[in-house]
Design goal:
mainly alpha, 59% helix, 3 helices
Length: 88
């Protein structure tokens, strides 16, 4: 297993190293890497920057609310005989 990993990684690194040489890229007719400009027209000032812990807390809250919501639905369906469909 280690032999396979070592061989595969070595071949991949050599391939990446060779493909970074412009002469090799020209020989194989590989187009040049395109560097796209950052879109300066989009203003993100109205979107507040959220830290990692804030995003983590928010995702935990969403998961807890979904679990609570599905518990209520399960209770209504199982014990109250409610359905999720509108009865005319």
């Amino acid at each position: 297993m280690v032999c396979y990993w070592l061989t595969s990684t070595t071949i991949s690194l050599v391939q990446v190293w060779l493909l970074r040489i412009p002469a090799v890229r020209q020989f194989f007719k590989i187009p040049a890497i395109v560097n796209h400009k950052v879109n300066t027209h989009v203003q993100q000032t109205d979107v507040p920057k959220q830290g990692f812990m804030d995003a983590f807390r928010q995702s935990i809250l969403v998961v807890c609310l979904k679990k609570f919501y599905f518990r209520i639905l399960e209770y209504l369906i199982r014990y109250r005989g409610c359905t999720l469909y509108y009865r005319a």
